[in-house]
Amino acid sequence: MTELEVAFESKFAVNGNVKLHYTAAGSGPPIVFLHGFPDHGMGWRRQLEALCGRYRVIAPDLRGYGQSDAPQGYGNYVLANLVNDVLAVLAAEKLTQAAIVGHDWGGIVAWWLAIRAPQVVRHLVLLSTPHPRNHLNAIADPANAEMIAYIRSFQVPGAAQMLNIDDLATWVADPQDRQALTDSLRRSSPEAMLGYYRANIPLGKVPSLGQLPLVKAPTLVLFGTDDPYVPVSAFDGTYREVDNVTALIALPGAGHFIHHQAAKFVTEQIEAWVERSPSSFRHLA
């Protein structure tokens, strides 16, 4: 199904004083797609088009991006607010539960949603996103200093003014998708986009997360072995953070944006995972 054939709906949810735009299509079991940096809700276009014939697909612009509000002050971008944004979208759709798919910052939000509001997460799918504990450990590891240098560069004063929107969209190969992303990023707030890093990954010592509840949803993690931003080792031990069936799929030669680079394969894996009833993952008598 092509974009011209899909009846995409442009809708809004509200979390406090923040209005959140999201795109939706189709009917059936709901799947919520959470994008990362630098992306937007329609960055999931290939997945939305492929799955909307059998599912209700929902793709928000995260706060600060696209048509969603961008409240001033990076404190507005703490993870608790981002999790509540997803809950607001679910409420707007009158949903008590959904499959959650996340990439990059959307993946971090998806992990925390599954940790803090497990009752709403039917299935969890992460792209290029380690568990938050593993991610912070990777950031703190001096061996990864070059790989994560961009995170530090985003936190220095004036970093937002240095962002070049056209450059941010160069990772998208398809010209139409690249233009759509460029248009969306021009509506976005550079300060807000970098606020995610400033609010949640403070300069200096990386905080310890301590004891966290285990994720209860069946969890699928896909990642590229050539991701220039996330070390493969950050995915080690993911199963220790999940009290359910956990599958990790490495895509040899793939980079960070696997929902584009390996769109068909990724979409097939998402569908195969979410079409199973959560009860079917029970494997012990």
Give a brief outline of the structure.
This protein has 285 residues and is of the alpha/beta class.
Can you offer a commentary on this structure?
The chain is α/β, with parallel strands linked by helices and 285 residues long. The protein has one domain: Alpha/Beta hydrolase fold, catalytic domain (Rossmann fold). 33% of the residues lie in helices and 18% in strands. The chain contains 11 helices and 8 strands. It has helices at residues 45-51, 79-92, 105-116, 132-140, 149-153, 159-162, 165-168, 175-187, 190-200, 258-261, 263-274, and strands at residues 9-15, 18-25, 30-34, 56-60, 98-103, 121-127, 219-224, 246-251. It has an 8-stranded mixed β-sheet, sandwiched between helices. Strand 1 (9-15) and strand 2 form a beta hairpin. Helix 1 packs across helix 11 (263-274) and helix 2 packs across helix 3. The longest helix is centred in the N-terminal third of the chain and has 14 residues, at 79-92. The radius of gyration is 18 Å and the shape is globular.
